[in-house]
Amino acid sequence: MMNEKKGRRPKIVVIGGGTGLPVILQGLKAKHAEVTAIVTVADDGGSSGSLRNYANVVPPGDIRNVLLSLSNIPHLQKDIFQYRFDTNDHFLAGHSIGNLIIAAMAEMRGSIFEAIQLLSKMMGVDGHVYPAAEEALILHAIFEDGTQVSGESKIAKESKKIERVFVTPINEDHEVKASRKVLSAIRDADLVVLGPGSLFTSILPNLMIGDLGKAVTETSAEVVYICNIMTQLGETENFSDADHVSVLHKHLEKKFIDTVLVNTEHVPEDYMNRERYDEYLVQVAHDFKGLSEEVPRVISNGFLKLRDEGVFHNGDKVVEELFKLAYESNRVRFAKI
C-alpha cells in the first residue's frame, strides 16, 4: 500500500466524547496512527459540570480520559491522574485529580487549549488532543412536541423524542468557533471518525459548532461513523442503525458520511448488568436497506466485546477496519492530485 511503502503514518481524526472514545484511541495509538482527538466541551454533569460551574472552565472529564488513552506515562501515574475522591471528602467528593489538574492549568495558562498542549507534553501523549471549542458550551435540545431543554445532563431525563440539538456559548453574544488547529486537522486527515458515543450528547455537540461541522462535510477524507451497539435511554430509544445516520445527516443538512461500521454480533440477553449500565436499553436494530439509502458503504462485523457485565466495541477489530479505510482514502486522495 502507498502509505505503508512510504512509511507515513495514517492521519486519523476522531471526534466525540464519552467512554467509547478512549477505547478506539488506544487501539489507534497501538498501531502507530497519527491520531488527533477532538473532544466535546458541552458536558455539564458530575465532576466536569461542577468544575465548569465553579471555576468557569471547559468540562475536563472527557479531555482527561482522552489524554490518558494516548499517554505513555507509567500505569501508577495514570492511576493517580484518574483517582476520584470518595463521598467522605465533602468538598472534593466525586472530583478526580486529573480534572482538578486540567482546571488548574487552564487557569494558569488562561486557555484550555494551551493547558491541554502543555499536559500532552508532560504526559508523553502520542498524538494531538484538541477541545472542540475553547470555551464551555451549552447543549440545547428541541423535542418533537416543541418543548426545549438546556443542559446535556438534563436532555435524557426528559424521556421525549429529540427533534434536534444545537449549542451556544455560555455568554450568548458571539458565534461558536472551533478550537485552534481543529479545522486544519480535519482538512488534512486521511480518515475522520465519528464515535462511538452518545449520538445527541457526545457526537452532535461537536458537529453543531458551525465551522467544525462544515469542515467535516467538506473534507476530502473518508468520514466514518461507528454506530452504537445499544440504544440509549432518553436519546435513541427504538432507533435502528439507519436512524442514527439519518439524524446526523439531517442535522448537517447533507449526506456526508461515507462509511458506517455496524456490529452484527448478538448481545446475550442476560449478560448486561442493568443496574450498572442503566442508560442502555436494547441492541440497536439493523436496517441495511435504510443504511444503503444514507451511505455508500456499510461494513458489518462482530465488533462486540463483552466485559465487566457491559457491552462495548472491540477496539482491535474496529481499529483494523479503520486502518484499511485510512490507507484506501489516502490512495484515492493522492490519485486525484
TrEMBL record:
Localization of this protein: Cytoplasm
InterPro entries: CofD (IPR002882), CofD-like_dom_sf (IPR038136), Gluconeogen_factor (IPR010119)
Keywords: Cytoplasm
Cytoplasm in keyword set: yes
Domain of life the protein comes from: Bacteria
Role noted for this protein: Required for morphogenesis under gluconeogenic growth conditions.
Family note: Belongs to the gluconeogenesis factor family.
Annotated HAMAP family: Gluconeogen_factor
PANTHER family: GLUCONEOGENESIS FACTOR-RELATED (PTHR30135:SF3), UNCHARACTERIZED PROTEIN YVCK-RELATED (PTHR30135)
Protein name: Putative gluconeogenesis factor
Organism of provenance: Carnobacterium antarcticum
